[in-house]
């Protein structure tokens, strides 16, 4: 069992220590974890540092590997797309011999979807399409990543009573994204951090199913944990949804190559 998305104090929005994340993983039956500290060059929030120092991350991982020999601890980055800094971002990510590169869109236009200002003057449809258009732009701008992170991120942040981003509401834009991922041979992350807000993962099950129908084969799972108690959160429900969507196996990345595990085996490992 594995968790491929988590942040420690080396990301500006977490206070967690990697040792704490490792202990939580062991308690939940997770044998492989991957840290994915933020690299969001040019993020509009100037008060929070969304740019980790990868060598500090690597040193942290090496120390944790010595202490937690029973765990496989992998080195990843979560790279955020912004059009003004994509060239810098690509060069930054290429410097390091990583296990995993997760590519995410947090910012569309001038604001992060997390910020209330993002929604000012926009209808719900306009807000969601602006986000989806940014995801399309991100895929046209770079192909040097492994998986698309938390597709539907806006749903976790949006100030609406039923914020889920569903395929039927935005089919043209969502399918344009999925077509690009399949054509590029890139994976899709099943991110479970949205369960408390939407009752499901990012992307929603119908989008995950459509990705599989279109020929998508690479899917991973990540809690997006920023605290130890969130490691592996809602994994059983997400694995069931993945199986229903047509997946028999998921993967993590090691040395930028996918390593697949059957969902049945993953379910059996969870505590």
Automatic annotation (TrEMBL):
Q: Where is the PHP domain?
A: 3-193
Catalytic function, reaction form:
L-histidinol phosphate + H2O = L-histidinol + phosphate
Write the record's keywords in alphabetical order, separated by commas: Amino-acid biosynthesis, Histidine biosynthesis, Hydrolase
Alphabetically, the GO molecular function entries are:
histidinol-phosphatase activity
Reported EC number(s) for this entry are: 3.1.3.15
GO CC annotation terms, alphabetical: cytoplasm
Give the UniProt record's GO annotations in the biological process aspect: L-histidine biosynthetic process
Q: Top enzyme class of this protein? A: hydrolase
Family, per entry: Belongs to the PHP hydrolase family. HisK subfamily.
Q: What is this protein called?
A: Histidinol-phosphatase
In its UniProt entry, the species of origin is given as Luoshenia tenuis
Lineage, uppermost ranks: Bacteria, Bacillati, Bacillota, Clostridia, Christensenellales
């Amino acid at each position: 069992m594995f968790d491929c998305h988590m942040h420690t104090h080396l990301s500006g929005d977490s206070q967690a220590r990697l040792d704490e994340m490792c202990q939580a993983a062991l308690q939940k039956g997770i044998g492989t974890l991957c840290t994915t500290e933020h690299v969001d060059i040019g993020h509009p929030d100037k008060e929070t540092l969304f740019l980790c120092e990868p060598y500090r991350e690597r040193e942290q991982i090496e120390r944790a590997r010595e202490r937690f020999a029973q765990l496989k601890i992998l080195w990843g980055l979560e790279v955020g797309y912004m059009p003004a800094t994509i060239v810098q971002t690509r060069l930054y990510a290429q410097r390091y011999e990583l296990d995993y590169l997760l590519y995410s869109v947090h910012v569309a236009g001038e604001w992060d979807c997390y910020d209330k200002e993002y929604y000012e003057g926009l209808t719900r449809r306009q807000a969601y399409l602006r986000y989806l258009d940014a995801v399309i732009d991100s895929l046209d701008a770079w192909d040097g990543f492994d998986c698309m992170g938390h597709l539907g991120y806006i749903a976790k942040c949006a100030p609406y009573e039923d914020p889920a981003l569903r395929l039927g509401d935005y089919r043209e834009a969502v399918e344009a994204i999925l077509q690009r991922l399949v054509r590029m041979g890139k994976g899709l992350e099943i991110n479970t951090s949205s369960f408390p807000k939407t009752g499901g993962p990012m992307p929603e099950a119908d989008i995950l199913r459509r990705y599989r129908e279109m020929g998508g084969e690479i899917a991973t799972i990540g809690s997006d944990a920023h605290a130890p108690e969130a490691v592996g959160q809602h994994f059983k429900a997400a694995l069931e949804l993945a199986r229903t969507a047509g997946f028999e196996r998921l993967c993590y990345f090691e040395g930028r190559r996918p390593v697949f595990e059957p969902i049945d085996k993953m379910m059996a490992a969870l505590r």
